[in-house]
Amino acid sequence: MTNKVHERHKTSITTPSDAEIRIERTFDAPLGLVWEAYTDRELLPEWLGPRELTMTVDEFDFRPGGSYRFTHRDSDGNAFVFFGEFHEVEEPELIVRTFSWEGMPGKESVERVEFEQLDGERTRLVVTSSFDSKADRDGMLQSGMERGVVDSYSRLDELFERQQAG
To answer: Which domains are seen in the chain, by residue range?
Structure first.
């Protein structure tokens, strides 16, 4: 099992098995704000993805059986497309969805996103991604996923600060 903790962002990324990636992060925001950031199509482009990319929400049907599709673009116009289907939604505690990236065709993971209220002001988020194989898991780790996660959660912190200040 590998374990990387990004102290500045308090993001822990581990590999608890040969076919899993586990990301844990505590946010200084109440559960309702964290849930809303994950489930409001208007908020997603404000935080999801590396800072230097712009994101559009092409599709977001947030319900079991619904699907999503996000396109991230760099300054040269290159597109990075992510998509999947929602399997379970238990507000405000759980989202289970598939995740695919056009950069790794035919490789689909299942993400389990768990939200836990720690106290009135903090929320723990645990994302467990399950892959078909160690090779698929390792391919995702080598894709730059870690930087994207850390950037996203840093941007999410900034969103919560703006929401709580305003």
So the answer is: 3-165 (3.30.530.20)
